[in-house]
Amino acid sequence: IAEILTEAQEQMQPIRLKNPALVDAWVAKYILDHTLVAPLSSSKVQVFMGPSACGKTSTLVKYAAHLVVKEGKKVAIVSADTVKVGAVDQMRIFSQILNVPFAVLRNQFDWGKILSAFTNMDYILVDFPGVGLKSVEELSWIRNVLPPKQVEANLHLVLSCLTKDSDLTEIGKRYRITDFKDVIFTNIDESTQHGCIYNFIKRFQTGIHSFGSGPKVPEDFE
Questions:
Q1: CA–CA dist 93, 172 (Å, integer)
Q2: Cβ distance 36 to 28 under 8 Å?
Q3: Which of 61, 126, 186, 194 could form a disulfide with 55 if both were Cys (CB 3.0 to 4.6 A apart)?
Q4: Model pTM score
């Protein structure tokens, strides 16, 4: 806030600074002009990762529905969430509803099988389990299931607007080891504080891929 308002003081005429509506309008335009938006990725493999309860699965399903229904793409869904009870079955049901192929990823050795099985697909969407990367075991696990370096994957970090700003920064620091390409923010309809979005993209210099704006599939996806 201090950084933006200092910029406003330097760029706006003194008389205009006395009008709160003009200051608000200047700040709104400044934020829009300086918000990083991720370029549209052509990567075949799209991985959704992040902490627990941030909306990864619902975001993946919304994106899959968007690709299938609105863009007419061939999509396959893969679940790497063998940690949470029922997660694989839930994703299998979503795949059946969308009428798209489904597979389970347990370790890095499965990547070869999955890529060969889905060679005719436009996109392979992969759902990771929610991990905070606080322990050595979690760090070791995520390294073991990340796509091999020869696979040009787009890694999305999914975060919730309901998470405290300081916690989002800490999560971003931990997930740096994955070299995530962009960020997806969910629960923007439930939160009244959205400054964390701007703070995150400024701190990590990463672009926004999309927003989750509600529970409806695929409507509440922007």
A1: 31
A2: no
A3: 186
A4: 0.91
